[in-house]
Amino acid sequence: MTEEENENGATSRAAALSVALEALAEGKRRFFERDVEGAHSAFERAWRRAANDPHVLSWYGVTLVMVERNSNLGVSYCDQAVRVAGPEPELYLNQARAHLALGQRERAVRALQRGLEQFPGETTLLAAKELMGWRRRPVLPFLPRSSFLNRWLGKLRYRWAKRSLPPIELSPVTLGQLPERAGEGR
Questions:
Q1: Cα–Cα distance between 88 and 139 in angstroms, integer?
Q2: How many helical (H) and strand (E) elements, i.e. helices and strands, does the chain have?
Q3: Are 74 and 100 in contact (CB under 8 A)?
């Protein structure tokens, strides 16, 4: 292979990656605007240009599950993205989105837990955790969770928190969005 052919190959790969990144950005924008089918087509275009990019793979996997209901391939892409890129909050969040779209709440929670173990202060993961409604510590930790007082105080705490925060629907699209952003789509 000549030097000129190497340069042409590198240039075309850079151009393909640039197009893929533009399609990825468009897909994310459409996803957060709740145009999941439009996002899926953008992610598919990105995937055709840069199939090995973990972010492209992960986002394409999420919309494969949501739009085409291809659960095996979609979840597999999300898992592969985490293995290739290593721990990244966005990739864990996409794993959780894919599992939530399949109605696998427990697996979604586990994906978020893995992400929070790696990135304990990550705001998107914390927002997703809050939205998923994980069990909180009992109000009175010295009493068992099943005690009347803890159950009653827990209900009061839940009602108070629900009243003070704007209502946010639990869906793969809203998962991980901060409250201000989640309310924009309404």
A1: 33
A2: 9, 0
A3: no
Task: Report pTM.
Answer: 0.76
With contact defined as beta carbons under 8 Å apart, do 91 and 82 qualify?
A: yes
First to last CA, the chain: 56
Structure tokens at 113: 């837990």
For 120, counting Cβ atoms within 10 Å of its Cβ (0-12 exposed, 13-18 middle, 19+ buried), the class is exposed
Which residues are within 8 A (CB) of 73 and not within 5 positions of it... i.e. 6 or more apart? 61, 64
**Measured between alpha carbons, how far is 19 from 28 in angstroms, rounded to an integer?**
14
Residue-wise pLDDT for 31-82, tens only, equals 999 999 999 999 999 999 999 999 999 999 999 999 999 999 999 999 999 9
